[in-house]
Amino acid sequence: MPTAIAVTSADLALPPQDERTLPAVVLRDIATLPLEQALGELQTLIEQHGHVIVVCSHATPVAVLRRLHTLRSLLETDRVAVFNPDLPPLGLAVLARQLRQLGSCDLSPGVLASAGRLLVHYIHSGAVLGSVARLDRIPVDLKQHAKSWMPGSQFAAVAHPQPQLVRLGPGAALEGPEFGTWMLVAKGQLQSDWVTGTLAPSWKVQGLREAPLPAESPSWWGTGKVIEFCSYLPDLSVLYQLVTSVRRGICHWCGIDVIGDRCVFCSATPPSVPAHDHGDKRGDGGSTRRALARRT
User: Fold this and answer.
1) 3-state class (DSSP) for residue 123
2) For the chain, is the Cβ count within 10 Å smaller at the N or the C terminus?
3) 150 versus 66: which is more confidently predicted?
4) Residue 147 lies in a domain
5) Is 188 within the bounds of a domain?
6) Residues sharing a CB contact under 8 Å with residue 21, sequence separation 6 or more, in sequence order
7) Where are the stretches annotated Disordered (predicted)?
């Protein structure tokens, strides 16, 4: 069986992108289940799939993260990876689906888990917001904060890969990807056609889809008046080429194949890399990203 890609709630399990996309494993109520039951369910997943990659956001409740790490410790296993990149919930759901796409390919568990740290560089995640008064994920200056209290004010933000924040109005724009992408849009309690009518054309997206707003999005963005968007690479062939173009190594601690400088399963870094440096110096995808821009 292929490596299991798990998410912590059903709204992070997006519909398949293609016929090869594997189904997501949804860890329902993982924090509230009796410990013995949760332990048994995770043990069964490991027995069925060999390895489990749990993708969760920074807005995931602390109780869920604690339970995941507790279960991993009790099982005394390096076969469970808890991966929580700094992406908004919709972007995280897209990344989880990309890993589900790659899960059907001939990639080892370590390379598949490491692929998430590479592919995050190709995801542009943001939102249109009705208020930035409680936004603490990206910088908000005093002027923008003050204008947030004006009736009818709306803002457009990009949280990843580089923070951007502008007040919507004539000429408002956000820098986007330099390569061809599709865009996914999730609407909350906000009325605006700026994403579909202005942003998508300016970013030259090649396809546009809608999805329900993830339950963690209002918490992540600090408001329920939000329309979240994410541009991404949809094609499995492109994703596979990106991942396989990066040099592989062997984790010196657990012995599995990895790309980049840190094993996602055991968190070990090569002896020559300082423990505090978790950057992908060999696997940041910079040269591949430039080649991708030239092709598209």
Assistant:
1) coil
2) N
3) 66
4) yes
5) yes
6) 97, 100, 101, 104
7) 272-296
